[in-house]
Design goal:
5-stranded antiparallel sheet; 12 strands; 55% helix
Length: 476
């Protein structure tokens, strides 16, 4: 039985040694596998010696086999060292292969981006000669393919002044190691047309951090500039129209004052002089004329004030809104007392604003709350919050409220939600409020539901300078 096991073991050792030799072809490495094959062969020889000695009864068989075993161990140890080194190299090769695949994938993404972008993308050396360009740049240069541009400079494609400017920009980018971002350039392309482009240029560094050139991207914004110019022209025309309209409104309203005062005065003289001789119907007609003229006078005054918001506004200055609130409250004190109104305010901030216009703004909003009160005693409260870029004010009341469908309409000129018989007014109060808030860089809106009161909100920009929106010149 022992002899059978030894014979089987010898066969396995020799077969394994033969297989180790075949691995030389697979790995391209021979020393490690040869040593292991030799060790395995010696292990087989050792077992052959053991088998022979068992048959012959040789005394020193144990010493001979141990010497062979020692030599085998040395060979296997050295062989394993060589194989371990081979395995480490194989792993290194696998890592390099993985990195190369990743690099190739990223290179493909970059190439796709560069080649497909409609903008001009280009790389230049330290002498500002093109190293690589994309098809977008070829369209600017009138080139058939990117390779035909390599080695050339802007002087080959642009006018001398433009090329010199671009060269100076690129040299400055390389010298300072700072990018040039979002520069608008007006240049003549190879098609002979003038184009606007938005250009960004960056320093180009090698793997050691040395500046080897620049790279940039230029976007054609000609259409955008045309739209901007058209919009600017439209805004300028609108500004002129608004100035003309304000001037017309101011002059017309101002010139209407004198004849209107004359009509009112003559009607009052008639009433005093012959009033006792007139019939009741005639007195009613005369009284209607006087009241109509008085209402028109109020409308003209409000229209004049509306036009003066921009034309005669005071310079911006530090304004204590607590003092403004007290002035506005005092101006409506008679109406507030007759309505038994409770008008309160939280501590209010100091802001940069036109103080007189702030008084008028709060006066109009407080007066509006008194006019549109319900059956309960009016309760009106003014508060303010410190916003990120604005002061946010609120004027809340417990009045009759406003239907949401009218929330925007009420800030337009001459818009009234109730008849004059129900509520007095010219329909200009909230329009004046909006114009004042607009001048201060803010906005105004209302939150309300019918029979639930109303809260008017308005904001005032914090960044207004002391001379911002100073009074405009008056032409008449």
């Amino acid at each position: 039985m022992n002899a059978f096991i030894l014979v089987l073991s010898i066969g396995v050792q020799f077969a394994t040694a033969l297989y180790a030799l075949t691995l030389i072809r697979s790995t391209g490495k021979s020393i490690g596998w040869v040593l292991l094959a030799a060790a395995l062969t010696l292990m087989g020889i050792r077992r052959c010696i053991t088998l022979y000695n068992q048959w012959s009864g040789f005394r020193h068989a144990h010493l001979q086999t141990e010497l062979v075993a020692l030599f085998i161990s040395v060979l296997m140890f050295v062989g394993i060292l060589f194989i371990a080194s081979t395995i480490r190299k194989l792993r290194h090769v696998e890592e390099i292969t993985r990195l190369n695949q990743q690099l190739e994938r990223e290179r493909g993404i970059l190439n796709t981006l560069v080649e497909r972008m409609p903008d001009a993308i280009y790389f230049k050396d330290r002498a500002s000669r093109f190293v690589r360009v994309n098809p977008g740049a070829c369209r600017i240069f009138g080139a058939s393919d990117p390779e035909s541009v390599v080695g050339k400079s802007d002087a080959d494609f642009f006018r001398a002044g433009e090329a010199a400017e671009y060269l100076a920009d690129e040299q400055r980018v390389m010298e300072t190691d700072q990018p040039l971002i979002g520069k608008e350039e007006h240049e003549c392309w190879q098609d002979g047309e003038m184009h606007w482009v938005l250009t960004t240029k960056m320093p180009w560094h090698d793997q050691h951090g040395n500046t080897v050139g620049t790279f940039g991207i230029s976007r054609d914004i000609t259409d955008l500039k045309a739209v901007e110019e058209a919009l600017e022209n439209a805004n300028e025309e609108l500004r002129r129209s608004n100035v003309d309209l304000e001037h017309f409104a101011y002059v017309a309203s101002h010139d209407l004052q004198e004849p209107l005062r004359a009509v009112t005065g003559y009607c009052q003289l008639l009433e005093r002089g012959v009033g006792d001789k007139l019939s009741a119907k005639e007195k009613s007609f005369l009284r209607g004329a006087i009241e109509g003229a008085t209402r028109m006078h109020g409308m003209i005054e409000d229209l004049l004030e509306y036009s003066r918001v921009h034309r005669k506004g005071e310079a911006m200055g530090v304004t204590d809104m607590n003092a403004v609130f007290e002035q506005a409250k005092a101006s409506i004190s008679a109406a507030a007392e007759s309505a038994h109104a409770d008008i309160t305010a939280d501590p209010l901030p100091k802001i940069t604003a036109d103080e007189k216009q702030m008084v008028r703004l709060l006066q109009n909003l407080l007066g509006n709350a008194l006019k549109y009160r319900g059956t309960k005693c009016p309760e009106i409260h003014v508060s303010a919050e410190d916003g990120a870029d604005t002061w946010d004010f609120s004027v809340a009341d417990n009045g009759i409220g406003i239907d949401p469908k009218f929330h925007e309409k009420i800030f337009l000129l001459f818009q009234r939600l109730h008849s004059r018989a129900q509520v007095e007014g010219t329909g200009l109060g909230l329009a004046i409020c909006k114009r004042i808030v607009d001048r201060h860089g803010g906005r105004i809106w209302v939150e309300s539901q019918p029979d639930e009161g109303a809260t008017f909100h308005f904001t005032i920009q914090k960044s207004l300078g002391k001379t911002t929106h100073a009074r405009m010149p008056v032409d008449a």
